[in-house]
Backbone:
């Protein structure tokens, strides 16, 4: 359930702690401390206060912020013994549908990481595709203790920001979302291309691609909703697939068999989850172009 | 061994029949009849004479031209009991490396076709990719007897033309070859892109792609040789893959990870095996275009 | 002064007639008749009522709608003896700044037209560039009496629609405006190009071009306002000019002298004044592309 | 008249001196000295020998190489009192068709330059457009005496190289020529665009453009000959103009009036006279692209 900042400013403290207690996993004390500093003019200020509450906490308590976090694709997760938000976030990243081999890989990494740093590997899963997750895991496992402590706390804050943004609305909202969108222009007719089937796949590996969106262009040549929006765009390689041949056939064009352009694929990478990625297809039956638009 | 038309015009008839006897499978009589009409000013005239020899032959003999042909991916082929040229042609089309299921599929089609028309399915395999071969086979199996007789003889002539073009050089050469080529332009630096890894794959099905060429661009942004040349370009869907990200990294550009453009893929179809298909990549680190060039 | 439809529905009839009297030149009787049919749910309904009032009027009165119109760039116009709206409209089209030769040309056309059809040449000047105006004038002068009567009345309604749209706001507004816009993308940096000088010129003839807008791209690579908007886009040939070389120099790029791309010009035509014309520039220092976008 | 290097190697010295005497203006002694060093394996070696003859000459004689040169668009030139080659070169650059004002401007620059440096302004006119010529003149007038001495001798050698390349053919030819070419691709039909009118103009100033080539595309979408070839491409800003609208009309397309694309213009600059500039137009009726190709 979502709160309006104004309501939150005046609600009984107990309700506020109940509402925001889960923003930091197993650490309601952050919400508790923050609630004493109300009212807040902007959501950003509310989050800043939470950050400060964390920074002001004694070392032991700060450390519980890390140790309290569930492992990635870990046994508790599989057994459902982790916080509801974590379950949802890991599921959204497909971590609940891993092969046995992948689970084993994560188990090894988790064990190695905990042995090395004394707390579980923490990452904001919503900002990563599966390949990026493993790349990041391996890279951070090789980092220094000091760097990892910093990385872990930074990720805890990223996770908290996204959870808070979903809970509280109002002025000065947190920028935790990016956008991935497309549109199709028909340069042979000079019109937006309507009714083109569009598919977005995340390229997990040379042999695995997962379709993450399937839709069709509207009269304006755009999709009614962004392909990915209202959340970070996971760091990953993607492939956009357009049914251009079917579009031209439907328009009554006389195409050779096979047509020169049938399913057009655009491969591109996303490195900035909070960025705007507009990847258009400007096409005729015999040529096309794309670019990172705005 | 390749003959010059002039030599052929003056050589002993026996040698000519020996040289051209295999142009029409198991039908040296075509070379025999043709040799009596020498000299020929152009290779085209020589082939025209062969065509006329076929047209002038009695029905029974013409029919042997069809019945004498080996089945596609058939038992004789697998047992090596077919003409050397046929072995090479079927191998080039990958018909010697089919899965058991595919062999079975061909066996069924061959049997059905022979039962229906009384002669084996004949097609100029050099003009087809594997998917197109099966599509064509299924389509022709559904044709009328009259149409199939015409189709089969037309394919016999196509096969003969390609064999003859490989055997005899000189004026008025036969047009039996197409070309598939590419080049890469770097619009950020205004120079041809040198050292870009290029791969051409034939898309056999949604799950199978076979790499048919692997090379690198030269100082002119082109490949030293066409990706496919000196032969028909098999009717098929293709994917060109360019190592653009590696090219930019090698040039010292500072790219995000993953880069927006890493391996760029261009999918296109070839419907005219004797056509010229120039498919360039005009690219910067943040956009690209392609088109059917000349 | 602009009216809200609601107010208009309930205002004293005299005020309404005063407000809308000039929508049809020298014909307050249209507003008079229309005002009796209030209230109107939508502006479109109000205009429909005006159209019907015209259609219902006796022939003599309908004809005054045409005869009452001022000549294009005619003597009365130059002497300021025409309705305020007409003065503004003709001035906006540059008809108050014609050379003597051009005035003479219009005088001849006006005289010939009036002699042939018995009423002045009427056209919605806001929908035409100067070249189109003369082309249209010459073409219509060659038309049949019946066709011209229809054309003239259609133009009277177009003029009225634009005037009404400017006078009355509310639900169901009339579609009398088009839009001409652009944006600039930098495919070498993958960002919108900010600070690019943009100029839009109307190509009047091989030797004359009139700058109609001069601006600069913002952080989103767009112009803060459309180059032409809130009105019909005059039918004409246009040239967009972009200071791309200066943009690259400002970005610190090391360009040759002269640079390959300095002032980039895009020439295009507008044939549909109520249409949306988005004409982007997607450019690197060594190449660019444009297309009719949406 | 053109010589073959072999002939030149064995011809009587007097003939050689007669043939090459004018390569260095009013300095047959260079050819004289060079002729003694025959035979030459490559044209480059011949030119190297000429360069060395100049370098080995006493200061007084070297200076005559500069003082002997005619002024640019100077009185002697206008009076025809300069070497035939110089007349042709200056005419090709349009220096014989200057306005009185332009002649005056050159007279002032010539006088100022000679007063400052003691020898006339020398530049290889074939490498410059008119605007570049004046820009260069003004810039060099501001240079140091030492730099100008170097510049002047470098230009004398450039002029000599071009003259020699025209006189002597054979192995190791001198690279004194660049190339400017184009081609037109129709991405709506997937074919080269045949019969497109192409015009190349040199942009001399904001108000003056001089057409330097006028032709039409052939069946391959190219022009039969490069727009500029076999000589340096003058340093200048250019505009290519393509009759795309007429091409589409001729193809029977139903275009709006005016069409979105009618005469397409591409503006670009040439900074490297010996470079290859391929500037294609890849177009459909509603969009186009260009880039510096190879």
Residues:
């Amino acid at each position: 359930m979502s709160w309006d900042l104004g309501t939150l400013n005046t609600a009984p403290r107990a309700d506020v702690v109940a509402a925001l207690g889960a923003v930091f996993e197993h650490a309601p004390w952050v919400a508790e401390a923050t609630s004493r500093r109300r009212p807040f003019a902007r959501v950003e200020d509310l989050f800043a206060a939470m950050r400060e509450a964390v920074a002001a906490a004694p070392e032991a308590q700060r450390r519980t912020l890390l140790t309290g976090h569930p492992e990635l694709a870990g046994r508790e997760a599989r057994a459902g013994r982790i916080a509801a938000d974590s379950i949802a976030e890991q599921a959204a990243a497909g971590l609940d549908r891993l092969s046995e081999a992948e689970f084993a890989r994560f188990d090894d990494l988790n064990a190695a990481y905990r042995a090395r740093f004394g707390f579980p590997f923490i990452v904001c899963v919503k900002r990563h595709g599966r390949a990026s997750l493993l790349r990041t895991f391996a890279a951070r496992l090789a980092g220094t203790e000091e760097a990892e402590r910093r990385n872990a706390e930074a990720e805890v804050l990223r996770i908290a920001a996204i959870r808070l943004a979903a809970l509280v609305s109002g002025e000065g909202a947190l920028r935790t979302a990016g956008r991935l969108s497309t549109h199709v222009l028909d340069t042979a007719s000079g019109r937006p291309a309507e009714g083109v089937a569009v598919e977005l796949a995340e390229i997990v590996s040379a042999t695995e691609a997962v379709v993450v969106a399937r839709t069709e262009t509207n009269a304006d040549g755009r999709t009614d909703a962004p392909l990915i929006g209202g959340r970070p765009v996971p760091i990953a390689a993607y492939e956009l697939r357009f049914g251009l041949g079917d579009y031209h056939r439907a328009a009554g064009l006389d195409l050779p068999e096979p047509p020169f352009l049938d399913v057009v694929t655009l491969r591109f990478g996303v490195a900035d989850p909070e960025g705007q990625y507009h990847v258009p297809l400007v096409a005729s039956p015999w040529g096309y172009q794309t670019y990172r638009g705005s």
